[in-house]
Design brief:
Radius of gyration: 24 Å
Structural class: mainly alpha
Strand order of the largest sheet: 1-2
Number of strands: 4
Oligomer: single chain
Helix content: 55-70%
Strand content: under 5%
């Protein structure tokens, strides 16, 4: 999906990050090549290339039919220095995810039928003789709660967060005892969590998970503040976007979404064509292949029509192309990622919105209501406007980054318009339904009923996800390949 260079560099940098922060230590084994392929959504050729790079630099050693072994440790003073230099990023992660993680994990907890694997991890946690081993089991246990969602984008996200926040979680820096992890508290909270899961008490699960999360967050901040800041001689590693959703978002997707936004905002109102391919390559600092893929995607969803040697004309009334330019296998794969993104937005919308909308002034509510009132009557424009509004007011940079990356994945939903709907199939995109939803949202904002606005918009995301998922299944999608459905009877709003 991405260029080979981007993929192998992403994998290479991810492994180096884990070594720098202490997640991987001398003597540890890397996952097998097959496991790395699955975790990072890359081919075996990419993994083997990274293995060779790491071996050439003496970072790992590997024999035939054996997992690679880490051969180096970062000196403690450098590890502490890197932690301090990345302090703002790490704390932004914790703050950005605070409204999201407990709710997502509670949703997964309610779907888990067998708690024995979790109990085994807790037993492993209790038996480990060193804090590093204990917290490895701790991290695995909490991340296991995401599995029932069957959402690869979320698992990428959780893996990246786990790697990037490793320093404040793992007591590898020989800090004062008062910064040590309260293992007994964690064990007691997890035992209470198991009881709540067995009893089906979702709200209690979320409350317990929020306690666990905030204890980790507070501890991380204390540890980072306790570390020495005398690290001027330490060179910080090159940073890459901490939300690993980028590994599922090829650059041409982001370029296509940017161009679609420019078309819809009438930037090209006085010209019939979008800029030429060479111009776009310069504007987006992108390769020829990237721009061609972005243009092909816009052709497929009906925003432009490209003619050989003439350029790409803008279609004033978008019509999906009859013949797709992108390969059907690629489209199918990305439609699954579109569903992943929509599932996450459905579950994260309310907690994110509750950090923004209750604090809007009357003037801001009226301004947003006016923007909605003149919106085009399509589900695409409505969801895009809601996400834009939330992104504009999001409290933390990490939240804005997450929303931006999820919006990039949503562009693949346009391919669902290639599917012919039966006459009796419920269609969220009908203009009269959109008009009714818009009217309710506008009224809620004008009355400053932000609680009602959040509930209505949350329901819209749930409905959009349920419809999109059922459409993919209706036209041949495999249940095992898609993110999980929202179970009936589970109160999500």
């Amino acid at each position: 999906m991405q260029s080979a260079t981007t993929l192998y560099d992403y994998l290479y940098q991810s492994i180096l990050t884990q070594i720098r922060c202490g997640a991987l230590r001398r003597g540890d084994h890397l996952p097998s090549q097959t496991e790395l392929c699955r975790q990072y959504n890359v081919g075996i050729t990419t993994v083997r290339r990274v293995y060779r790079m790491l071996q050439a630099e003496g970072i790992v050693s590997s024999g035939a039919r054996t997992k690679a072994v880490i051969q180096c440790d970062l000196p403690q003073e450098k590890s502490a220095g890197l932690a301090v230099m990345r302090k703002a990023i790490i704390l932004d992660m914790f703050c950005s995810l605070a409204p999201l993680y407990p709710g997502l994990q509670a949703w997964g907890a309610m779907q888990m039928k067998d708690l024995n694997p979790l109990r085994e991890l807790l037993e492993q946690f209790a038996k480990s003789e060193e804090q590093r081993g204990q917290l490895h089991a701790y991290s695995q246990l909490l991340d296991s709660l995401f599995l029932p969602m069957h959402n690869q984008v979320l698992m990428d996200w959780a893996q990246e967060v786990s790697h990037s926040t490793y320093i404040p979680l793992y007591a590898t820096l020989q800090l004062d005892a008062r910064y040590a992890l309260p293992f007994e508290q964690f064990q007691a909270l997890i035992q209470e969590l198991f009881k709540a899961m067995e009893a089906g008490r979702r709200s209690q699960c979320e409350d317990l998970l929020r306690q666990i999360y905030y204890k980790g967050w507070t501890r991380a901040e204390k540890i980072l503040n306790a570390l020495t800041e005398d690290c001027a001689e330490v060179k910080a590693p090159a940073e890459y976007t901490w939300a690993a959703l980028n590994s599922r978002t090829p650059k041409y997707t982001a370029v296509a979404r940017s161009l679609s936004n420019r078309i819809r905002s009438q930037e090209f109102a006085f010209q019939p064509y979008i800029p030429s391919i060479p111009q776009l390559m310069q504007e987006y600092d992108a390769s020829l292949a990237t721009i061609r893929s972005a243009v092909a995607l816009l052709n497929d969803i009906g925003l432009i029509q490209t003619a050989p040697k003439k350029g790409s004309v803008i279609l004033r009334r978008p019509v999906p192309a009859k013949t797709m330019k992108l390969e059907i296998a690629l489209v199918r794969e990305n439609i699954v990622y579109f569903l992943d993104a929509l599932q996450l937005l459905a579950l994260c919308w309310s907690p994110l919105a509750k950090t923004v909308y209750p604090f809007l002034s009357k003037a801001e509510c009226e301004q947003y209501a006016q923007r909605l009132a003149v919106l085009g009557l399509t589900s695409d424009s409505l969801l895009s406007e809601l996400l834009w509004q939330l992104g504009e007011k999001a409290v933390y940079p990490g939240q804005r980054s997450l929303l931006e990356q999820l919006k990039n994945l949503l562009i693949w939903g346009y391919y669902l318009k290639h599917l012919p709907l039966d006459a009796d199939y419920p269609d969220l995109t009908q203009p009269e339904r959109i008009a009714a939803i818009l009217n309710q949202l506008v009224q809620a904002l004008n009355m400053q009923r932000t609680d009602l606005f959040i509930e209505l918009s949350q329901a819209l995301f749930f409905q959009a996800y349920a419809l999109a998922r059922s459409l993919v299944l209706y036209y041949g999608g495999q249940e095992s390949e898609l993110p999980a459905a929202f179970p009936t009877g589970l109160r999500l709003i």
